[in-house]
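Here is a protein:
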Amino acid sequence: MNAIVQNIPELPLSKRLKADTSGNHDSVDNLVMGARPFESHERYAYFLRLQHRFHGVINGLYHDEALNQLLPGLHELPRFDAVCADLSDLGLPLPEQPQAIQPASSYAALGWLYCAEGSNLGAAFLFKQTQKIGLDGENGARHLAAHPDGRALHWRQFVALLDGLELSDAQRDEAIQGAIDAFDFYRNTLREIFPA
């Protein structure tokens, strides 16, 4: 007999996002490492162009008034300028400013921001890899350096804001779709920028 289970607590938004996009996250991780971006300065330059495109298209989200009301302090977190500085450190020309993405709603934008801020948590490993090719938080790898408060604390603060939002089921679904769209964008851009 099938019993109806009631009063199951709903997963916090951050845990829903993680659960519903884990396959996307893993495929992006595998693609990045398969591209060998830390093998040489030449391959790292492709990675910086990828980062410039991704952080460029979402840069406006960090300054969006509605999103800053949902996530106070968001305007302090973008890394696009740091990516541009990294390109300059390596004597690379700045690519054209990417066209800003327009998520379907502020809730979809939350999914894009979840991906971007989550990538900063995972950047600790990438940051160590840059040191093998002579780069660091002062030269060439600024955008991968830890947040001044530390990666873990910064991430916990961001997650607490996300999980504190009172969203409808439909709005949570929009956030998840936004995260999936962000992973798809990153994956497609990587394939476009890195040589086969």
